[in-house]
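Appendix C: a fully annotated inverse folding record. The material below is reproduced so that readers can follow the format used throughout the book. The structure is listed first as tokens, followed by the designed sequence.
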């Protein structure tokens, strides 16, 4: 121990005499440790820990690629999504989602909720389950379908204290009334690797049908942030 303490004191004296060298050494160590930590995190996320969904190797994202305009990755419109969904031969199933902030009213204190509109196929593709009630139905993608909503497990606990009789009750979002038809299981989480988004995709509190309007097939929704997720036929992942 005495020898170790003497070596430490000597090292400190040498470093104090050469502050420039000391600064370079410390910065080099910090950069090296930071880079190794970042690489380790990426490797662990992509290779060591697979996505928490059934058959994750069959999931892929679809983006628009416009080299003439310098856009390598852009969102799709509803019209473009329906064209790919109906005419592609590479994917077994297609889904689309759009993140939206909602104002919950009709209660003592209004509050802002993080939510998303998604096609009924999305939750099914990702192996989601409802702890009570059900998930979205294909017929609820139509604009004339009843207004329904699925709550996250956390929101169910917070707003309704985990009341199992919540099914059939109504909540008011943006002055529109929605009927609660299900509550997501507590372990379900969305992942940005499957649904890249600018917001916190892993903190969704409500899920509503996308509600495709046939009239909008003629016009592109250029101002809509549509997120495309595809399940490939066979193995492997890829996209356009």
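Designed amino acids, in order:
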């Amino acid at each position: 121990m005495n020898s170790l303490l003497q070596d430490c004191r000597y090292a400190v004296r040498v470093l104090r005499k050469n502050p420039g060298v000391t600064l370079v050494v410390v910065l080099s160590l910090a950069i090296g440790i930071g880079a190794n930590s970042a690489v380790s995190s990426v490797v662990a996320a992509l290779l060591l820990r697979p996505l928490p969904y059934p058959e994750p190797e069959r999931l892929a994202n679809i983006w628009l690629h416009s080299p003439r305009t310098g856009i390598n990755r852009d969102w799709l419109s509803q019209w473009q999504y329906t064209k790919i969904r109906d005419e592609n031969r590479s994917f077994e199933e297609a889904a689309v989602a759009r993140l939206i902030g909602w104002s919950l009213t009709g209660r003592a204190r209004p509050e802002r909720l993080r939510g998303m509109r998604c096609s009924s196929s999305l939750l099914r593709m990702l192996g989601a389950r409802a702890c009570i009630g059900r998930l979205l139905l294909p017929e609820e993608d139509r604009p004339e379908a009843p207004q329904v909503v699925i709550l996250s497990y956390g929101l169910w606990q917070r707003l309704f204290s985990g009341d199992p009789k919540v099914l059939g009750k109504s909540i008011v979002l943006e002055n529109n009334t929605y009927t609660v038809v299900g509550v997501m299981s507590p372990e379900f989480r969305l992942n940005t690797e499957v649904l890249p988004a600018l917001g916190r995709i892993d903190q969704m509190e409500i899920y509503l049908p996308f509600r495709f309007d046939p009239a909008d097939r003629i016009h592109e929704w250029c101002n809509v942030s549509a997120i495309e997720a595809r399940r490939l036929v066979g193995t492997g992942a890829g996209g356009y």
